[in-house]
């Protein structure tokens, strides 16, 4: 595995389903790069619902996900499931 | 402005343009409503809330193209599901091949005891026809009963929610070793039970025959006129017969703490150790002559044969059978006493 780029999308202030659509849009736009392990998407959100809907759908789409609680927000990572 | 339009197009054209404009706005409104409605249907399907108008205005809604975004995601979901189904199909085929190849009978039951999956070995073990298990409970199909049989592994697993192992479950005169494992959902409820049967009827019969033969040989040796002894590698006695006990004068309780060296006359012990080591090396001994030493210090000259038996390549015991030669000889100490 070579160097992986990380694209961070700050969605703080948005709520679900706006965050959900934004996340799906980003995943769709970058699907080839994510699947080839060249890119990892990181969504920063303060909307708790998004920590369920986004990872669940991303996993159904075949991606790997992690959710981390940070001080004032959540960090949702979307990456290739092969990692 | 109105007067200019009047001059350019006349009254009728103005009305027509106004009407067309109204219709276009109505059509756009319907289209926006349609997009919102369909978007919300798709979002609901994906487990999220609908979009509120204040969250996404009409222009942004068109710009973002949520139907396109969700549709593209569905394409990926379906692609992933297709890939997953293919992997599941391969895994299913592998499991079927494994089930067919193992020598044990395997059944998968649901929580109501209905048979879901079974392999060919189950049919052979219980003398069932193809398809006779489908749609039936295990107790009905296997045990021919409407209720749980005694020592039912399924019943115990459902009660304890733990794996169960039965070393000897008997059905219609046949003996089975049964291992059962619960399959639980994420709430810890048992959803399925996997049962594995091994037919041990032949093994049980063989063990019974061996026990019977062992008893028979023990009876023969016990009642033999010759002295018979079976000695462990550490010198302890595993078995001695009645003649041995009578001639050497030890009770069964005393024999437990006795070693072979305790019954060999001192001057014969070196030779005896040599015999013992020769046997351990795998050598065969011709007739052995030695002198046993009884509890009451009498010397018993004996002649006989000693062999050794192995278990997993290691010496397990020596087996000796001796007859007394020339009658008893009192030892010096015996004579003194």
Count of spatially separate domains of chain A: 1
Q: What's the level 1 CATH class of chain A?
A: Alpha Beta
Give the number of helices of chain B: 11
Elements of chain A, N to C (H/E): EHHEHEE
Assign the structural class of chain B, choosing from mainly alpha, mainly beta, alpha/beta, alpha+beta, or little secondary structure: alpha+beta
Measured as a percent range, the helix fraction of chain B is: 40-55%
Mean pLDDT of chain B: 87
Gross geometry of chain B: rod-shaped
Low-confidence sequence ranges of chain B: 328-337
CATH topology of chain A: Translation Initiation Factor IF3
What percent of residues of chain A adopt helix (DSSP H or I)?
Answer: 25-40%
- Low-confidence segments of chain A, given as residue ranges, are none
Instruction: Tell me the quaternary state.
Output: heterodimer
Q: Which architecture of chain A per CATH?
A: 2-Layer Sandwich
Q: What is the number of beta strands of chain A? A: 4
**Coarse structural class of chain A:** alpha+beta
Strand content of chain A: 25-35%
Find the CATH superfamily of chain A: TusA-like domain
Main sheet properties of chain B: 6 strands, antiparallel
| Range of strand content of chain B | 15-25%
CATH architecture of the largest domain in chain B: 2-Layer Sandwich
